[in-house]
Structure prediction request, 392 residues.
Amino acid sequence: FATRARPSGTLEMQRTFVGLLLLPLASGSELRIHPDVQRALAERRAVVALESTIISHGMPYPDNLRTAREVEEVVRSCGATPATIAILDGVCCIGLADEELERFAQLGSAGEVRKVSRRDLAHAVARNAHGGTTVSSTMLLAHKAGIAVFVTGGIGGVHRGGESSMDVSADLVELGRTPVLVVSAGIKSILDIPRTLEYLETQGVAVLALGTEEFPAFFTRSSGCAAPMVAADAAEAAAVCHTQLDRLRLQSGLLVGVPIPAEAEAEAEVVQLAIQQALADAEAAGVGGRDTTPYLLRRVGELTQGRSLAANIALIKNNARHGAQIASSLAALRAADGGDEADEADEADEAAEATSEGAVPAGVEGALGRLAGAASDAVHRARELAAEAVAG
Ligand code: PSU
Ligand code: MN
Prediction:
């Protein structure tokens, strides 16, 4: 009787144990990962995350939809899998089906999508709202999903006058605490570029310019600010990323500035004048907080009669191409390392992180299974000893 009862009892106990351990972790994981992205991640192929505030708040319809589709296509044509990250009906989506992308772009232009940065995430999900994810929330969701490379147009920064208003984008703090590489066309001159670079240094972010000595300024290739570091090409950027994330296992991010292609560069004076005007208009209209960046972007677009929009579209596609190359080089470096030892070390790190962050990364289940197995073996042995004691 005892010998027959024991295995099933042990198995049940093991299941319960795993279940109890997984429960708090699983309930913290609210990601819906698109099957194409899931497959690419499982096969350790290159994946590029894309943000969605640019779709909901950065461009008018239908330019936003067309651009989002074209950017995904650029990523695919470079051999990587795109994962547009957005919140639909309170669900954090990692990769959108084309109908979802279309719906999201329409909802955005109808004003039904919230701008969601890290602080807004829980509220938007709890209310089953739609959310365009900014660089900060896209980074953290990409990381939870196991994606290391993320492409955007421009990042937030220290606003002009930020030394007294303290209007510093959450993007900069996120870069300091989330191990993801972000590709952007640099820092827009609606922001205070030197102070933004200072703040990134404080946060310990690796800031690199790709193939140039100067950190780019979004609409223009030069900013007048020397780049803190230079990556000669995508392969070198990937090598730095691999070293930071996989070998040194730093928990901070990287920012790669890719200058806008020369042929798409907006005339500097036109943009500069529009920016001055937009800043004055924002002040006169009393715009502040989360509305500042979308307001300035829209106003610069109006003042340049769409020339800034054309530049914006050109640069984000260019970023997508470089980002896909970086992601591909990174995948190759990881595959070259890719012995089981590296994987196991990753799993151990991810498991440790999951306990503090609340995600369920791949491999944790296996580790928990082994743990549960060891625990049930111990219980089993204790029972045997007790039985022997009684019998004796
Ligand atoms: N800069 C751009 N285009 C954008 C944004 C910034 O050139 O679309 C968006 C990004 O989503 C970025 C966010 O993460 O604005 C920053 O907003 P804030 O400055 O409120 O942190
Ligand atoms: Mn702000």
